[in-house]
Amino acid sequence: xxxxLDFSGDREVSPPRFAYDAHTxxxxxxxxxxxxxxxxxxxxxxxxxxxxxxxxxxxxGLPLIAAGLSGARMLGKAxxxxxxxxxxxxxxxxxPLPRRKGDxxxxxxxxxxxxxxxxxxxxxxxxxxxxxxxxxxxxxxGLFVLWPVLPFIVRGLTNADRAMVRxxxxxxxxxxRRIAELESDRGVVVDTAAADLRRIxxxxxxxxxxxxxxxxxxxxxxxxxxxxxxxxxxxxxDEAHGEVKLALQELRDLARGxxxxxxxxxxxxAALSSVASRCTVPVKVTADLPARPAAAIEGIAYxxxxxxxxxxxxxxxxxxASVDVWRADDRLLIQVHDDGRGGxxxxxxxxxxxxxxxxxxxxxxxxxDSPEGGGTTVTxxxxxxxxx
Length: 388
Known about the structure:
Layout: E1 4-5, E2 11-12, H1 22-54, H2 61-87, H3 104-113, H4 116-144, H5 150-168, H6 174-225, H7 230-258, H8 261-266, H9 268-277, E3 283-288, H10 295-316, E4 321-328, E5 331-338, H11 352-361, E6 365-369, E7 376-383
Parallel strand pairs: 3-4
Antiparallel strand pairs: 1-2, 4-5, 5-7, 6-7
């Protein structure tokens, strides 16, 4: 008889029968091993609660409970693995505790103390000892007395264990996992913003600011020579004029890197055409957008294409490239393709890992298809938000 799948995604073992198949022996092994493990878990949980509660009047009480809850998480992980191996129960691993920079000891303490996964594991360990004693006794007796009907009994007992594992050792709900993802995404956004500010500061300091300092010095010297050596002063003013042009160009480039005026004034189609014109490879841009998305989404799309085309110029050795942008339902889709050497990956340090993180932070997707010698196609998805 083939196995069936239930709606939870777990493997539903074939109905119990008198024959002792591999599933039955796994269930018997689970029940016989539950008593010693349940005893250990019960002692751990009761000791944690008793000692931690007794010491809450001191400075070590709450940290002790927090550390104990972290240990309870490890017990829960081991129990999920045992249930998966012996009972076929597929339970998702809970999200790790969020860790934010700058929280310090008190932040860790508060996060650990309110950890619902740790507390539910403690409850599981407390409840399981009496149940483990009962199932151990019934299973051990059944091996010698109730042999013909033992598979039926074992199935009923392990179904109760399956329910306990799903009820107490699974993630509490999807909200918990989503909160952890949002905490991580927020960290990515903050780090990205800080990196962008450092880049702007560096570009201003090393570029336009340095040129303006040289310009001021050159004009000062020209002023001193204006009467005694007009020709030399004219040459200095000429040179200063050239410095002004370069400084203005650098400021324009910097402003374009922050938020290009063409994107604000004319939208994504015109802005992407402007980016494509600066690429060293001929690029065909196709934008099929019935309206303009929200400014934030438009900006992310622009900088994503801009960085991908920079990669095309620097790394691809391509002869042609294309950019396609369109809306599909509530998503903004971007596809950048080149006919270069391929081999690109989010793990190879070409800036794609950063792009994937940025898109993930706004509930987007980033997929790279780049076989060796077969060109590169990058597909990005962003949530569509109407422009207010």
